[in-house]
Write a structure and sequence with these properties.
The chain has 324 residues and is an alpha+beta fold. It is built from five helices and 14 strands.
Length: 324
């Protein structure tokens, strides 16, 4: 009888060890992999912020080291705030790749080019996420790799549904640089802008209001996509009613890609695009206005102003954005 009890104990103990090992392995898979995923998300955010912060310095005359250290500072600041015990990196740190270069949007290939005229910046970082349970399986850390690339991209397309119902005249940009990059749009025309619904026919107040409703409330009519060379009709008349339908609480602070046009009679032709933030929607002395502030470095490089233009060179740079 005693001999049989000892045999049963001899079977149960090894089974318990196998079961415990399996449970620890499952815990390692669930907890450690989850921890590694959260860490990767934090690092990816840090990498994205780093390249976005350094992007405006591309082609600005800043030195290679200045651009790189801008990215490095943002990366360190972000990761030390989000990852417990994270130590600051330097440009020679193991696992960190921080390079300037050029990016081919067609082939999606980044080519290293460490010069001040580089058009892209890449940050890639490999980090060892420490494990909690996996060491029992001989796994002390899990490597997570994150990469971000910011590159120049010409603002050459206005996507469907994002057309604010103003076309800005190219001539209005010649004085923008001396006016803190501000362009005043108006209810009629003061040589700055025209109302439009991006239609082939002369846009009515109702059509323009439908586009406003889409921008403000996601109802109404979605305007079509535009590219450089696109044509549409404009209205130089007074559309006070449409201004009255504009809600400053919704619109002020919004950023849109505005078409910059040349005009002939009632037809506008897209010469390029500018990124601009709606600064103010207001009435003054019986007239109604919208003021927009051009975003530096977010202007289509296709725009040309001639020798009399006073637009600063940074307004003519290509836009920049995450490409990977």
């Amino acid at each position: 009888m005693i001999h049989r009890v000892r045999n049963k104990k001899g079977v149960i103990i090894p089974l318990f060890v196998v079961f415990l090992t399996a449970m620890l392995g499952l815990a390692a898979a669930v907890i450690d992999m989850g921890q590694a995923y959260m860490t990767k998300t934090k690092i990816q955010n840090g990498v994205d912020f780093a390249v976005l912060a350094a992007g405006p310095s591309l082609n600005s005359g800043a030195s290679v080291s200045t651009i790189k250290n801008t990215a490095l500072t943002y990366l360190n600041n972000n990761l030390t705030m989000t990852i417990v015990g994270f130590s600051n990196l330097d440009l020679t740190s193991s696992g960190l790749t921080l390079q300037l270069g050029d990016y081919n949007s067609s082939t999606m290939v980044f080519t290293v080019n460490e010069v001040t005229t580089a058009t892209a910046i890449k940050v890639e970082y490999s980090y060892a996420s420490q494990t909690i349970f996996a060491p029992v399986l001989g796994i002390n850390n899990l490597q997570v790799i994150s990469k971000g690339i910011v590159a120049n991209q010409a603002a050459g397309m206005l996507s469907a549904g994002h057309g604010f119902p103003f076309a800005i005249l190219e001539s209005a940009l010649t004085t923008a640089a001396s006016n803190s990059n501000v362009v005043n749009l108006d209810q009629g025309s003061m040589g700055n802008s025209y109302w439009t619904a991006y239609t082939a026919g002369n846009p009515s107040a109702a059509e323009v209001r439908a586009v406003l409703d889409y921008i403000q409330y996601m109802t109404g009519t979605s305007p079509p996509a535009l590219s450089i060379g696109s044509t549409f009709n404009i209205d130089s008349g007074n559309m006070t009613g449409d201004y009255m339908d504009m809600d400053p609480l919704i619109l002020e602070g919004q950023t849109h890609l505005f078409p910059v046009v040349t005009e002939s009679m009632n037809t506008a032709t897209v010469a390029g695009f500018i990124g601009a933030t709606i600064s103010d929607v207001y009435s003054s002395m019986g007239s109604n206005y919208v003021t927009v502030t051009i975003l530096p470095n977010y202007t289509s490089s296709d725009l040309s102003f001639g020798s009399s233009a006073t637009v600063s060179s940074n307004l003519l740079a290509g836009s920049r954005g995450l490409v990977e």
